[in-house]
């Protein structure tokens, strides 16, 4: 027959697993439980439960002179220790946050403190305080294209040559980088030299177009009649 028992000890402030000799008297047990629960022996009431969820105790250890074995305490039962005079031992006050004074600050007071997470983020420019990257100014790419030069624009259509005269070379407000403004010989363009209300050069309606420099070839290109459009242009 087993001479010891493994149990759970539960009190308002503690919960632990313990092993006791079944020959230990209830009075001796209370002396040991004081070190665990902080409840003086004379203020302890010990009830034995089959589990934490059990609604009613199996037995109450009411006689300090009886051994645990007398009450039939079994392995893994729960010894629930109640403090009969909690005002004297402050039982439960360690876990009762309702008795704790709250430290509160207004948003203004919090923002003025220098020892807060908010202040740390502000000093180190973290999160919403991080510096927003400034838009890099457009660096003009080296372009060897001269205003007034005759040119031909690259086309996806075989044997389709779109020719015209360079009217503008430089940055624009509608997109980053350097653009070449061209006046086509025929009305196969997209504009009249202006985009979104900003004028870059003068030409007839639908004869103007803006393309990237790498699509432009400068040279001695005579005028040719062409009659269709290229949707890849701006």
UniProtKB/TrEMBL annotation:
User: Cross-referenced InterPro entries, in alphabetical order?
Assistant: CAP-Gly_dom_sf, CAP-Gly_domain, TBCB_Ubl, Ubiquitin-like_dom, Ubiquitin-like_domsf
Query: What compartments host this protein?
Result: Cytoplasm
Q: Which family does it belong to?
A: Belongs to the TBCB family.
Residues forming the CAP-Gly domain are: 170-212
Keywords attached to this Swiss-Prot or TrEMBL record, sorted alphabetically, are: Chaperone, Cytoplasm
A GO BP annotation: tubulin complex assembly
Q: Which GO terms describe its molecular function?
A: alpha-tubulin binding; microtubule plus-end binding
Record's superkingdom? Answer: Eukaryota
Protein name stated in the entry:
CAP-Gly domain-containing protein
User: PANTHER family from the xrefs?
Assistant: DYNACTIN 1-RELATED MICROTUBULE-BINDING, TUBULIN-FOLDING COFACTOR B
Q: What is the lineage of its organism?
A: Eukaryota, Fungi, Dikarya, Basidiomycota, Agaricomycotina
GO terms for CC? cell cortex; cytosol; microtubule plus-end; nucleus
The family database entries (PROSITE patterns) matched by this protein are listed as: CAP_GLY_1, CAP_GLY_2
**Which SUPFAM superfamilies does this entry report, sorted A to Z?**
Cap-Gly domain, Ubiquitin-like
Cross-referenced CDD domains: Ubl_TBCB
């Amino acid at each position: 027959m087993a001479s010891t028992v493994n149990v759970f000890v539960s009190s308002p402030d503690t919960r632990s697993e313990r092993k006791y000799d079944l020959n230990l008297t209830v009075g001796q047990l209370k002396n040991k439980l004081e070190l665990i629960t902080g409840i003086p022996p004379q203020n302890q009431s010990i009830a034995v439960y089959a589990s934490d969820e059990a609604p009613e105790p199996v037995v109450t250890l009411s006689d300090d002179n009886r051994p645990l074995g007398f009450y039939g305490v079994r392995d893994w039962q729960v010894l629930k220790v109640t403090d009969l005079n909690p005002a004297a031992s402050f039982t439960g006050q360690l876990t009762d946050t309702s008795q704790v004074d709250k430290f509160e600050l207004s948003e203004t007071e919090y923002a003025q403190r220098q020892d807060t997470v908010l202040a740390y983020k502000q000093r180190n420019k973290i999160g919403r305080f991080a510096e927003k990257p400034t838009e890099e100014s457009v660096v003009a790419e080296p372009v060897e294209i001269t205003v007034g030069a005759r040119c031909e624009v690259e086309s996806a259509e075989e044997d389709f040559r779109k020719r015209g005269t360079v009217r503008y070379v430089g940055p624009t407000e509608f997109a980053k980088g350097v653009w070449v403004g061209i006046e086509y010989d025929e009305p196969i363009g997209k504009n009249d030299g202006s985009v979104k209300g900003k004028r870059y050069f003068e030409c007839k309606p639908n004869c103007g177009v803006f393309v990237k420099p790498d699509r432009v070839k400068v040279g001695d290109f005579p005028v040719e009649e062409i009659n269709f459009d290229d949707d890849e242009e701006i």
